[in-house]
Amino acid sequence: MPAPRRSLANSNKIDAGSGVKFEPFANLAYVRVHSYGFTERGGPAALTSTGSTTDATFTTLGLRGTTGLALGTLDATARGMLGWRHAFRDITPLSTVAFAGGDPFGVAGVQILKDAALLEVGLDLWLARNATLGLSYSRQFGEAVADQGTKIDLIVKF
């Protein structure tokens, strides 16, 4: 197979031969979600909230890989990622609300996965020197939970 003319491969990656490159990575992310308070109108079923804030920190450790391909007349880059994500702090979003004239009570949201395995595979097609079409699939696996998604993106550089 001929070597691709262009590649998304980074020269800082570990070359495994045959055009395959690997890159270990570590990420740290802090996420803060704030909801403002509100008061509904509409009688005894109207809710009031003073607002809430959820803070979470995520660490991710993993390995990314890429390889260049030639698909007919198009150059392409196949990519993949395996990782492990760990969440700290507020993994259960909480809000306090009350019905009109009633006592406040707590409402818990869906718990964020504390530990999850991550998988992503994708293909980037070089349509032109300044245009790339990307297709990808991602999935997280956790205790009795799986989350998955697909993405298509078109990148045009001016």
What does this protein look like?
There is one protein chain. This protein is an all-beta fold and 158 residues long. Helices cover 0% and strands 72% of the residues. It has strands spanning 14-17, 20-39, 47-71, 74-89, 94-99, 105-108, 115-128, 131-142, 145-156. Strands 1, 2, 3, 4, 5, 6, 7, 8 and 9 form a nine-stranded antiparallel β-sheet that branches. The chain is elongated. It starts with 13 loop residues before the first strand and ends with a strand. Mean pLDDT is 87; it is low at 1-10.
Q: State the helicity in percent bands.
A: under 10%
In total, the number of strands is: 9
Provide a count of the helices. 0
Shape field = elongated
How much is the radius of gyration in Å?
23 Å
Mean pLDDT: 87
Distance N to C terminus? 31 Å
Question: Biggest β-sheet: count, sense, barrel?
Answer: 9 strands, antiparallel
Please identify the structural class as seen in this structure: mainly beta
Order of helices and strands: EEEEEEEEE
Question: Which regions have little confidence, pLDDT < 50, spanning 5+ residues?
Answer: 1-10
Strand content: over 45%
In a nutshell, what does this entry contain?
This protein has strands at 14-17, 20-39, 47-71, 74-89, 94-99, 105-108, 115-128, 131-142, 145-156.
